[in-house]
Amino acid sequence: MTTKNKKDDSPILEVTNLKKYFPIQKGIFKKIVGNVRAVDGVDFSINKGETVSLVGESGCGKTTTARCIMRALDPTSGEIKFKTKNNEIIDLSKLSKDEVRPYRDDIQMIFQDPFSSLNPRMTLFDIVGEPLLVNGMKAKKEREERVSEIMHQVGLRPEYMMRFPHAFSGGQRQRIGIARALSINPSLIVADEPVSALDVSVQAQVLNLMMDLQDQLNLTYLFVSHDLSVVSQISDRVIVMYVGKIVESGTPKQIFESPKHPYTSALLSSVPKADPRLRQERIVLKGEVANAADPPSGCTFRTRCPNPTDDCRDGNIEMGLIEVSPGHWVDQCCVNCG
Ligand SMILES: Nc1ncnc2c1ncn2[C@@H]1O[C@H](COP(=O)(O)OP(=O)(O)OP(=O)(O)O)[C@@H](O)[C@H]1O
Ligand SMILES: [Mg+2]
Q: What is the pTM of this model?
């Protein structure tokens, strides 16, 4: 894996107080009886050239956050400020679907499942070349040249351009997904569990490829994963989510070596360690994951916290993140609960 060198301090993406509530409807009149608070006030930014990872248990709102940024979902409220290639800053959350279209090419997505995310009836040329065609590259020869170049970049042989996805292995298919995402030169890639469906050995190859491409093409990644061992290797910053909220964020060193939130500590304790001497006792949190449709009063984490107090329940403790060391942010209510 090569080291990254083209980071700068200007944010390419700035998400402020992002919320996405899904209404719960009942009866034939579809009366709204509540909301699933899938994303409930999330703030973070990503600098150009960085890899920022979103982690947390299933259902904590990672994919919903990613899909709001892609504007595949309309956010309920909040800002999603994105710096375009012309250095124009636009708030994607305020634009209609039509207004978003010109900026969509700058942000591309890599999906989890390379088996179902590729159309089995399309050749590689069609899959990778489709975004080029949509963007006005009408001449087939020109598209062939670009598809060939990008296939080469992702480690696929251009001679296979006219084959169908079923002829390829899982890792190769994920390379096709990456090639499609990269064909129109995006600057931000949102990768939702891009290696979770792959064998461990293939995972490393695809991650290495993604890191190399980041260097070559100066890409910025928002990387969604539940696999902390993957995240520790590739991230510049890690954001831990619990039931729609960020509970801790920092560098991989801060998060993995000195976690401050009991939820982060519990997540880390469940990561298998290769060396048996390093194995630590697994921290099992009591209770169930809080229900995003009916979150607990006060601190959302209090129903699983090892040291909850009445003040946590009543919300008497200030909520929100505080900076415990430069760049290391932890939820105020839980900072001393670990
Ligand atoms: N279209 C939808 N309608 C209603 N609820 C939804 C919808 N999409 C997601 N949710 C709910 O929002 C919450 C967050 O879901 P999300 O898919 O973002 O979680 P996740 O962190 O990506 O989980 P996973 O690790 O399983 O992919 C969950 O409670 C989920 O049930
Ligand atoms: Mg998800």
A: 0.92
Looking at domain 11-106+186-334, its CATH class is alpha beta
Pick the ligand that lies closest to the CA of residue 242: 1
The residue contributing the CA closest to ligand 1 atom 28 is 59
Beta strands per DSSP E along the chain: 11-26, 31-47, 51-55, 77-83, 89-91, 107-110, 188-192, 220-224, 237-242, 245-250, 321-325, 328-331
User: In this structure, are strands 237-242 and 51-55 parallel, antiparallel, or unpaired?
Assistant: parallel
Contact 20, 68 (CB under 8 A): yes
**Neighbouring C-beta atoms of residue 285, cutoff 10 Å:** 19
* Residue-range domain boundaries for the chain: 11-106+186-334, 122-185
How far is residue 130's CA from residue 293's CA, in Å, rounded to a whole number?
39
pLDDT tens sequence across 31-52: 988 999 999 999 999 999 999 9
If you measure from the C-alpha of residue 240 to the centroid of ligand 1, how many angstroms do you get, rounded to a whole number? Answer: 16
Give the chain's radius of gyration (CA, Å).
Answer: 21
Indicate the range of 114-123, 174-183, 254-263 predicted with least confidence. 114-123
Q: Is 289 in the pocket of ligand 1 (CB under 6 A)?
A: no
Q: Does residue 155 line the site of ligand 1, with CB under 6 A?
A: no
Structure tokens at 252: 């991989």
